[in-house]
Amino acid sequence: MSFEEFLLANEKVIRMSFFFGMLVLIGLWELAAPKRALTISKSVRWINNLGLVFFNSFLLRVLFPAAAVGVAVFASEQGWGLFNYYSDLPFWFVVVASVIIMDFVIYIQHVMVHAIPVLWRLHRLHHADLDYDVTTGARFHPIEIILSMLIKFATILLLGPSIVAVIIFEIMLNATAMFNHGNISLPKTVDKYLRLFLVTPDMHRVHHSIEDDEANSNFGFSLPWWDRLFGTYRAQPRGGHQAMTIGINKYRDPKQVSWLPGMLMLPFIGKMSGYVINRRQWIDKEDK
Fold first, then answer.
1. Which helix (H) or strand (E) covers residue 174, if one does?
2. Helix (H, G, I), strand (E, B) or coil at 32
3. Each residue of 215-244: pLDDT tens digit?
4. By the 8 A CB rule, do 140 and 267 touch?
5. Count of alpha carbons within 13 Å of 69, Cβ hemisphere only?
6. Considering the chain, what percentage of its residues have pLDDT values greater than 90?
7. Burial of residue 122 (number of CB atoms within 10 Å: 0-12, 13-18, 19+)
């Protein structure tokens, strides 16, 4: 059995092992040395946030039983996609390039869900969390999860990545999302150099600020380079990590943003104009 065959045969076990392993590791780290004090009961947040995660997982399993890896297998069999067309490229190059390109697509997707009002309606569930911990990293509305999966499928069909690259990317995306949403503290020197290669908790926490201009920075999930290249990088929140307010200004009711029924209804309330990216507001703040 080749390495690729081994990964394909054990893909679900490997992904779930990384998911639960990171969840336990970061969860224990948060208990031992939290970065910030929580404002909402940890048990309430974990039950509802993880309840949403399991519901989303069930939904994806029903709608897309083959998932991303199955699409990669199909693209390979059909010879579809850039890297399947240029099949003589070195295997290591295809894997590395595929992971980097797919991560860039996630960055673009993340920017777009902030920029387009109807998509922001879906994405604001993720930002409406009044606290910031490992469970925030997997807290997304089911409709956004479905759209995200369809974008991932389209990327795989166009790119033609190897099965190994898709599995590595899926593991990396899940693991780093939980790591960089962790309510944990890294030594400043470690954070300074680590964020050159990986999105750190202090880097991504800025993105969950209640301030519009801070929430529209640091869009990267795994690789930090895109924010630096496209001018969306912000090193620190202006008020500091301890004093910054997490969440969305208009949605502060715990029943609405911390309990599952209210979370699921969040995209369908409020005016369409109430979305995050608004350059005029940023300019007004700077002028004042």
1. helix 163-180
2. helix
3. 999 999 899 999 999 999 999 999 999 999
4. no
5. 19
6. 81
7. buried
- Helix H, strand E, coil C: the string for 4-46 is HHHHHHCHHHHHHHHHHHHHHHHHHHHHHCECCCCCCCHHHHH
Cα–Cα dist 13/80, whole Å = 27
Place of tokens 């893909």: 11
| Helix or strand holding residue 156 (H, E) | helix 142-159
Q: How many CB atoms lie within 10 A of CB 190?
A: 11
Q: Which residues contact 134 (CB under 8 A, 6 or more apart)?
A: 22, 23, 26, 27, 30, 178, 181, 182, 183
Asked if residue 69 lies in contact with residue 11, where contact means CB atoms within 8 angstroms, the answer is yes
Residue 287's Cβ-side half-sphere holds a number of Cα atoms within 13 Å equal to: 6
| Residues in Cβ contact with 269 at an 8 Å cutoff, skipping those fewer than 6 apart | none
The residue behind tokens 């693991």 is: 175
* Stretch among 59-63, 151-155, 227-231, 282-286 having the lowest mean pLDDT: 282-286
Q: pLDDT digits over 30-88, tens only?
A: 999 999 999 999 999 999 999 999 999 999 999 988 789 999 999 999 999 999 999 89
Tokens of 97: 């390039």
Region of 240 please: left (phi>0), alpha (psi -120 to 50) or beta: left
Contact 174, 15 (CB under 8 A): yes
Q: Token pair of 92, please?
A: 């290591």
Place of tokens 């166009």: 158
Q: What is the CA radius of gyration of the chain?
A: 19
Q: Give the per-residue pLDDT at 277.
A: 62
Within 6-149, strands assigned E span none
Three-state DSSP class for residue 131 = coil
Q: What token pair was written down for 61?
A: 């399993």
Tokens 């880097």 sit on residue: 203
Neighbours of 65 (CB within 10 A): 8
Residue 282: which pLDDT band, with cuts at 50, 70 and 90? very low
